[in-house]
Amino acid sequence: MEQPLTQRLDQPLRPRSKQRVRARGKQHVTPRQTQQETPDQRASPAEVPVPEPRPEEAQKAGTATVEQKTVAPKAPDAANQLEEKSRQEKQARPEPPAPEPPAREPSTDTESEPEPPAEVPVPTQRPDTSEPEAQPPATAPQPPPKPADAGAEKMLPDPRSADQPADKIPAKEVACRERLKTLGVEFEEHEAESNPEIGCSIPYPIVIKTLGKSVAIGPATELNCSMAEAAARFAADVVQPAAKAEFGVDLKSISQASAFVCRPRHGTRKLSEHAFGNALDIGSFTLSDGNKIEIGPTPPEKDAKFLDAVRKAACGPFKTVLGPGADPDHALHFHLDLEPRKHGGTFCQ
Predict the structure, then answer these.
(1) For the whole model, what pTM was predicted?
(2) C-beta atoms surrounding 26 within 10 Å
């Protein structure tokens, strides 16, 4: 049956906004993206305004709208699908981070030298652990006071410790010096010496250089005049004849080991005779031919014979004679003194 060319009045009018219906169908298929579209995405076509239907056609338009809703949406073409898929991939792909600026290439001129840091690191200050410099005390420390009886033991009293020189030299001292001159002894006067704390004293000392005209003594020997006279007579009367008899030569000199010394006897509280210039220690004898005879524990046989003769002859002119064998302190010399003893006795070992 042929359809009339003219539109029937009972048929609803088809709206002319075909593109809008297609666009809505497109939006229904692909949901609107929440993210902002990229600039390269194509803009959707602008919606065409639909004219309002005339009053007499309002009912027909409502009927046509219902029919359009029931009609299945028209499938988009292939080109639109590819474009939509590309747009979705671009939106889903995260944008790459901005590239970091390339590292600065080191200069070839300073390649071997490291670039100094922007800020020089400052080391942490170490705590001051150095020991403070020792300061001397304000006052010097004093030793604790000693008990009254803890000091050095005093020497036993000796009456000679109180001897002091007089304004005028005594007559016996003058006479002694005259005798020394007769014996050919060279000497010189020396000022008096004393030490009240120890007790030594020599009020009229002399220093002898020779024991006669041909016998020297050294080093300088400080003695009282009586001891100097006894030593000079001993050298002339005992030592000189013994050297002549044993060696056939004269005595040239005597080497002394000790004369005046302000000290006590070793290991005792008694003052030594040296503290009064009243003792002489002889270490060796030298003969005119240059032979030196030293005093010791085991001298050569010929020297030992000479020394024994001299030692025995000394006991008498001197009140005390000590030497090797008497004690360790006298192992290398003869000790001769004029210590006064009871009844004029002697002590010889």
Answers:
(1) 0.57
(2) 15
